[in-house]
Amino acid sequence: MKFIDEYRDAARAQECARAIARVATRPWTIMEICGGQTHAIIKFGIDELLPRTLTLVHGPGCPVCVTPLELIDKAIDIAARPGVIFCSFGDMLRVPGSQTDLLAVKAGGGDVRMVYSPLEAVRLARENAAREVVFFAVGFETTAPPNAMAVHQAKREGLRNFSLLVSHVLVPPAMEAILSSPQNQVQGFLAAGHVCTVMGYHEYEPLAARYHVPIVVTGFEPLDILQGILMCVGQLEAGRAEVENQYTRSVRREGNQPAQQILREVFRVVDRSWRGIGVIARSGFGLAEAYADFDAERRFGVADRRTAEPGECLSGLVLQGVRKPVECPAFGTRCTPEHPLGATMVSSEGACAAYHRYRAWNRNPISV
Ligand code: SF4
């Protein structure tokens, strides 16, 4: 298949791994930002191809994983109300809140619908004028433009029964929070190619300069990731700290300008709470004042709801690259994909779920 098989060629992957081994003379720790990259690394055993001196740690780039528990509780609260049609992508439906999840609300008679596009929710609002239609808008910069388009469309049509429950988060502030933490071990980053397809990579350049850390914009297939690691290690060995683009087939420095324009119109940058990490200043999108009427938190009066995270889960440390999933005492015993304690086990892109699926037999920390 074009653009899949070429990037999974085993011989080329071995060749690239040998090139990394030749270049890497010292121990380095590199973080891949995106959960999709984490999944590919564990699924294809990329970490096991690398020299033992290189450590890959897994970043906070899984939208389900970083959505705070209190927002799940707010979604459940709204979805259970009579007269509401609650729309979400499928991956959020089985994320446990503090008491239950959206699938259980649906089983109990709530009108919870899985949709494939926020525009489906706009259509439902158009067709159900007597009901409130809410779309659960989570994710990084990648999913924000279509959600912005949906609310823009609803406003243009004068749909007063449509709203967004928003929890969009932004990658650069999370990287800065990791780099400025006293626990930080990360010396180089693989940035998420799809986020940079939308936003470009110019906003990473001040980070690379300020923290003297190489950042390589990287794709999601095995050869993408290996090439991204090679570029990152090359910079580390040479003492360089620049932003480089491995994912040239999709990413330009300036990103997608029309997408950024609709983001600027519909959203404003706000402080956001990240699950397991806490509040990071100016790290997310909320609706701009001109679109405040479409804010589900205001419409349903749930903005002030607070929920404490369970103490046992170490997902905050996993998401910051400080711990590996298998170092959590609950991994594979009290916490499994069937009975997850934390969001990094719920989501298929979560690091704990990836280790459980592909490495459940190995209860010891993976050394690479
Ligand atoms: S294994 Fe479960 S409890 Fe442990 S960090 Fe992962 S999600 Fe949290």
Explain what the structure shows.
- The protein is of the alpha/beta class and 368 residues long.
- It is built from 17 helices and eleven strands.
- The protein has a six-stranded mixed sheet, with helices on both faces.
- α7 packs parallel to α8.
- The two termini are 31 Å apart.
- The C terminus is likely disordered.
- It binds iron/sulfur cluster.
Summarize the structure.
With 368 residues, the protein is α/β, with parallel strands linked by helices.
The level of helicity is 25-40%
The whole-angstrom Rg is 21 Å
Mean pLDDT: 93
Strand proportion, as a percent range, falls in 15-25%
Keywords:
single chain; 368 residues; alpha/beta; 5-stranded parallel beta sheet; 39% helix; binds iron/sulfur cluster
Break the fold down into its secondary structure elements and pairings:
Layout lengths: L9 H14 L4 E7 H9 L2 H4 L4 E8 L1 H4 L2 H11 L4 E5 L13 H6 L3 E4 L3 H10 L4 E8 L4 H14 L4 E8 L1 H9 L8 E5 H7 L5 H7 L3 E4 L3 H17 L4 E3 L11 H10 E8 L3 E10 L8 H4 L15 H5 L23 H4 L4 H9 L9
Parallel strand pairs: 1-2, 1-7, 3-4, 3-5, 5-6, 7-8, 8-9
Antiparallel strand pairs: 6-11, 10-11
Helix pairs in contact: 1-12, 2-17, 7-8, 8-13
Bound molecules: iron/sulfur cluster (SF4).
The site of iron/sulfur cluster has 16 residues, from helix 15 and helix 16.
